[in-house]
Structures are given as structure tokens and as C-alpha cells.
Inverse folding.
């Protein structure tokens, strides 16, 4: 098969790149090894997780809000099987939508595992080679698993494994207090699990502003989620009926299931990149410039496999930029104002620099402020549930340009952008 642009990977970065290149008149093939398009985000990441977020929000409303608004219920409970059916339906709708877009735009979906045979050819397992003028690598990322004794137990699952559960665990321990860990901790607490978070760093979501992290820890604690910060997991024992998790200085907790969410690594090995001269690092991913061009001029890389931001909407933009450059245009990615929504409860959103990042770049030439009530949206939130949004802004006084802001409030995700 001969095409103008070959895209390796059918996730947010890949399918966006394929569609954009086709819209610009290129012949395009997208190689994807999974049975459905959409990548981790649509199949086993952002989308199914947010379906559960919606279920958790409905439970919260039924428990805490409806009575205040004069809506009386005759009782409520979580039907986890029905929630999973809803989740599966949402995923099917989204992945089928991508397949329809491929068909409408004339993108050829090549099913199979692809590796670079040379700098102008992708070999597909069990299929025909794909020869190309330009290629876009969008292979995504995979869940990391630290070398901890006992972590190979079937009761120790990553985010994909947790999303496949058919029963709500009575006791859940979350290893890692980053975005993924905190989101699932928040969800399963609403689902009725006893949730414990073990995090080796001093704070949750350490990449965000310190005040947002402190507020999240406070709110999760009020909901009954147990936090163990600055403590490392040292061993996991599975006796066949439960896990005993050892951490800190001889502390233990007994649970039914462990979520391992210590981060994700770029999928860069086994692609044949060494043989074609594409520079990459196993931890940081593929080296690419603002045009998303790699060290091989006609090969581009986008999304989790090549960027600092492991966010779907960032991959969307990078895919568009790579496709436009592959088709002879001149486009660049501007990362100065990337929105970062976190779907915990309360939800948190940031854009641009955190205060720490602003001070690192500008020194003392930075001012911060706190707005505890947004005039319009704050009043509506208060009328709905008594929630008081909080906004923090970091600015550089020289010209008073806003360099970043973080907000904590209820249901922020609907305003601040899509999920990871």
C-alpha cells in the first residue's frame, strides 16, 4: 500500500492527524492494533472514567442535594452492572464515531501491529506493508508498574483493569496520588468503597498549585478517604482472599483490590525507531520540535509518546499540527495555555503556569491573587449546591499579563475542556 501519510496509532493524536491530513488532500493510512479506534482515551481511559464520574455525581446529588431542592426520593442505590452498561455504551458510541469519521474522510484503517521496516515503510503484522512519504507516530503510553514485591498479584490492577471490574471492591487502596489515582479514589468513595491512598510525595497532584493540592486533600479526607503521604509501598501479600499492603515504617492495610497508578510511560520500544534514526528516550519519549518533527525530517510524533503533556486535547492539537506540516504547511504547537482539568470531587482546573513555575521563570516579578467567589458562575453554583468556587491567578506585573490560573469548584470540567 502506498500513501502520502501513514499514521501509527489510532488514539486522539493519531486519528486527529489522519483525518486532518485527509482533509488537506493527502492519501492516508492509519495503523492500529486494537480492535477499536480511539486509543487509551476513548477505550480504557478518559471516556469510560468520565462515564463513572457521571454516575458518582448522580449518587452525590441523590444523597446531598435533592432534598435541599425539594426533590424527595424513595431511596436510591448504585446498580454497578447498569453503570457499566452505560459506560460501555458511551465508549461504543465514541469509538464508532471515529470509525465513521475515517470512512467519511477517506482514511484507510489498517488493522494490525505496525513497526518501521525502514524510513519510508511500516510493516504490519499479518498484512501488507505501508509505504509513505511522511509518517506520524502516535503510539500513546502505557501504565507504569514499580518493582515492588507482590505487585504481580491479580488483585493489583492498573486503570484498565479497574475499569474492567464487575463488582465494587469493599476496600480499595490506590498506589499513587496523582491525577489518575485521585480521580478513581473520588469515584470509588462515592460507589461505597473504603478508599486509602498511598503517595510517596508530600502532596497529592504535586504538579498543580500547592493550595489546590491542600484543598483536595482536605476535601477527600472529609469524605472519609484515608491519605498516607510521604510513604512508600514496600511489599504486597496476597493470601487468596485479600491483600496486605505494607508501607511506610512497618504500617499495613488490608484491602480487596489495589489500583497501581504511579504514572504512564511513552510507548516507544519495539517500533523500529532505532533503525530509522528517530531519537527517543524510554522515559521521556520521542524527541520532537514545536512542529512535532522528529530527528528524521519527514517523520513526526504526537501525543503521549512524544510530549510532556499526557492529555487528549493536547494530542488533538499536536495531531493537527503534525498533519498540516506533513502536507506542506507551516504550523506550530503553543503550549503556553494548556488547560488541565482534574475530575475529582471537587474538580480542579488549571491553565498556563502554576505559581511555582511562574516564580521559577520570572523570580519575584510575580503576583498572585485569590478570588473566593466568581460573580456570575459562583452565584449559580451557590444556588445549586452552596458551592463556592475558588480561583487563583499568577501574573507577571510587568504588563500585568496573566501567566496561569487554577480553580477549584464543582463540575469545572464542563467549562475547562476535555479529559486526559
Amino acid at each position: 500500500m502506498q500513501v502520502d501519510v501513514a499514521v501509527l496509532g489510532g488514539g486522539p493524536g493519531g486519528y486527529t492527524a489522519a483525518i486532518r491530513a485527509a482533509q488537506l488532500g493527502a492519501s492516508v493510512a492509519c495503523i492500529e492494533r486494537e480492535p477499536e479506534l480511539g486509543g487509551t482515551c476513548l477505550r480504557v481511559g478518559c471516556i469510560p472514567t468520565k462515564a463513572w464520574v457521571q454516575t458518582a455525581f448522580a449518587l452525590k446529588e441523590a444523597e446531598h442535594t435533592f432534598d435541599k431542592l425539594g426533590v424527595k426520593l424513595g431511596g436510591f442505590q448504585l446498580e454497578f452492572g447498569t453503570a457499566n452498561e452505560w459506560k460501555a455504551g458511551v465508549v461504543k458510541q465514541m469509538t464508532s464515531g471515529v470509525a465513521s469519521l475515517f470512512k467519511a474522510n477517506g482514511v484507510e484503517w489498517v488493522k494490525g501491529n505496525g513497526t518501521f521496516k525502514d524510513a519510508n515503510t511500516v510493516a504490519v503484522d499479518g498484512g501488507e506493508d505501508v509505504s509513505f512519504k511522511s509518517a506520524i507516530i502516535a503510539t500513546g503510553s502505557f501504565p507504569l508498574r514499580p518493582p515492588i514485591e507482590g505487585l504481580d498479584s491479580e488483585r493489583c490492577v492498573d486503570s484498565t483493569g479497574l475499569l474492567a471490574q464487575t463488582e465494587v471492591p469493599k476496600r480499595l487502596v490506590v498506589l499513587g496520588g496523582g491525577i489518575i489515582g485521585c480521580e478513581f479514589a473520588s469515584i470509588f468513595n462515592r460507589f461505597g468503597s473504603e478508599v486509602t491512598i498511598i503517595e510517596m510525595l508530600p502532596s497529592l497532584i504535586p504538579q498543580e498549585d500547592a493550595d489546590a493540592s491542600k484543598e483536595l486533600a482536605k476535601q477527600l479526607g472529609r469524605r472519609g478517604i484515608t491519605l498516607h503521604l510521604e510513604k512508600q509501598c514496600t511489599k504486597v501479600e496476597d493470601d487468596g482472599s485479600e491483600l496486605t499492603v505494607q508501607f511506610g515504617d512497618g504500617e499495613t492495610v488490608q484491602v480487596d483490590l489495589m489500583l497501581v497508578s504511579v504514572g504512564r510511560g511513552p510507548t516507544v520500544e519495539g517500533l523500529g525507531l532505532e533503525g530509522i534514526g528517530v531519537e527517543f528516550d524510554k522515559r521521556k519519549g520521542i524527541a520532537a520540535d514545536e512542529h512535532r518533527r522528529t530527528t528524521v525530517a519527514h517523520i513526526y510524533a504526537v501525543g503521549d509518546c512524544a510530549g510532556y503533556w499526557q492529555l487528549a486535547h493536547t494530542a488533538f492539537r499536536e495531531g493537527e499540527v503534525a498533519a498540516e506540516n506533513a502536507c506542506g504547511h507551516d504550523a506550530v504547537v503553543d503550549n503556553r495555555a494548556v488547560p488541565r482539568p482534574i475530575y475529582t470531587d471537587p474538580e480542579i482546573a488549571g491553565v498556563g503556569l502554576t505559581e511555582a513555575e511562574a516564580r521559577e521563570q520570572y523570580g519575584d516579578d510575580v503576583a498572585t491573587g485569590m478570588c473566593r467567589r466568581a460573580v456570575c458562575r459562583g452565584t449559580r453554583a451557590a444556588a445549586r449546591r452552596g458551592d463556592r468556587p475558588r480561583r487563583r491567578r499568577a501574573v507577571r506585573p510587568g504588563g500585568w499579563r496573566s501567566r496561569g490560573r487554577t480553580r477549584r469548584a464543582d463540575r469545572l470540567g464542563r467549562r475547562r475542556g476535555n479529559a486526559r
User: Anything to note?
Assistant: Residues 286 and 306 are 4 Å apart (CA to CA).
